[in-house]
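Researcher: I'd like a candidate sequence for this fold, 377 residues long. If you have to choose between options at a position, lean toward the conservative one.
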């Protein structure tokens, strides 16, 4: 039985991969272990490791981050080192045949560094995409450390080939976050609004805004500009607190200033079914989350994408790109409310990525030559 180890650090990556992880667990010929770290183990972000455990998925190791929790670039860099040490110890004990990583965060980079030095083949999900921020640099670094790739689109595959990755080791699977997304969006708009004590007759926006590390000093002001715009247009608001990146404390302060507004609900975490239900039910989604770029199109929800965080990613038709300036935001909100929901079409896949990933994991060649990686060009 092949042993697959997945590294998870946030509610976001786990939500995207949950269906795939369940498929690995239930496959019968693959063994699954999970290494949990980062925000999963932090009370301030909802202690979301409990969701992994509630799903019946095996958490084989926890890599806790001790010390100062100041959200700045220096702490993020130090945490990559701390996580790398923890990953080495976890992988030595678990002894996986393949380490599975997703995306572009420091937790995944630490996992890649550890696995590479332990001679464990790495499979990377969502490589080959662009964003133009620190996420892009980290994502491409993980791709270059990886031996196999499960990408969402043909464009991502082409980009990895141009980066020197071997074409036969790049598989277009689609985005795993689309698997079961319609089924997960099981809570109706009326129940969602009633649960938050919001007015069913007024429009509502879902707000998910994370800081950009290179622009951390602007994060609070940009968040405040967006929130003020939504208030001007009479929108009710369900706002998720940001991730733990540099600048997040300023975004949290901006949200706190609106906490007592009767039209605003600030929440630390929404379980996956509640989050995608809000994404489907909202009149618009606002912020800079990859969920707006990748997942929201599966519901046709209009998305106002603010700033540079998703700058160069492939777009679906429902995305409106703006800067965090009052005039631009006002125009985007008017346009989104006027357009309403879009026809459902998603360039990121058909909702069957997990099955493809499991099939590939069964058959990936794991002979020693895989570890002697060289660029194909």
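Model: Candidate sequence:
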């Amino acid at each position: 039985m092949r042993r697959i180890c997945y590294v998870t650090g946030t509610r976001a990556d786990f939500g995207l991969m949950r269906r795939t992880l369940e498929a690995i667990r239930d496959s019968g010929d693959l063994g699954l272990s999970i290494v949990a770290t980062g925000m999963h183990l932090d009370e301030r972000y909802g202690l979301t490791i409990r969701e992994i455990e509630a799903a019946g998925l095996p958490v084989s190791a926890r890599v806790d981050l001790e010390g100062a929790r100041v959200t700045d670039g220096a702490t993020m860099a130090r945490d990559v080192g701390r996580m790398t040490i923890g990953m080495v110890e976890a992988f030595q004990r678990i002894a996986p045949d393949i380490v599975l990583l997703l995306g572009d965060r420091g937790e995944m980079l630490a996992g890649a560094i550890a696995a590479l030095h332990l001679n464990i083949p790495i499979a990377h999900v969502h490589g080959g995409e662009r964003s133009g921020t620190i996420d892009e640099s980290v994502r491409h670094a993980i791709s270059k450390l990886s031996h196999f790739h499960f990408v969402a689109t043909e464009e991502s595959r082409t980009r990895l080939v141009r980066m020197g990755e071997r074409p036969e080791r790049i598989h277009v699977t689609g985005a795993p976050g689309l698997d079961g997304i319609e089924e997960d969006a099981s809570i109706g708009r009326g129940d969602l609004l009633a649960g938050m004590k919001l007015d069913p007759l007024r429009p509502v926006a879902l707000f998910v805004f994370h800081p950009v590390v290179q622009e951390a000093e602007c994060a609070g002001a940009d968040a405040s500009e967006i929130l003020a715009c939504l208030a001007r247009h009479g929108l009710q608001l369900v706002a998720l607190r940001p991730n733990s990146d540099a600048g997040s404390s300023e975004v949290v302060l901006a949200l706190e200033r609106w906490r007592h507004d009767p039209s605003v609900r600030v929440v630390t975490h929404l379980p996956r079914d509640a989050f995608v239900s809000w994404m489907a039910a909202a009149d618009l989604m606002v912020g800079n989350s990859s969920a707006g770029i990748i997942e929201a199109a599966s519901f046709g929800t209009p998305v106002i994408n603010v700033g540079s965080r998703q700058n160069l990613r492939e777009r679906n038709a429902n995305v409106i790109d703006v800067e965090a300036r009052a005039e631009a935001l006002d125009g985007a909100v008017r346009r989104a409310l006027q357009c309403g929901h879009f026809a459902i079409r998603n360039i990121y896949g058909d909702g069957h990525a997990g099955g493809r990933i499991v099939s590939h994991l069964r058959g990936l060649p794991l002979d020693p030559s895989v570890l002697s990686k060289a660029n194909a060009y």
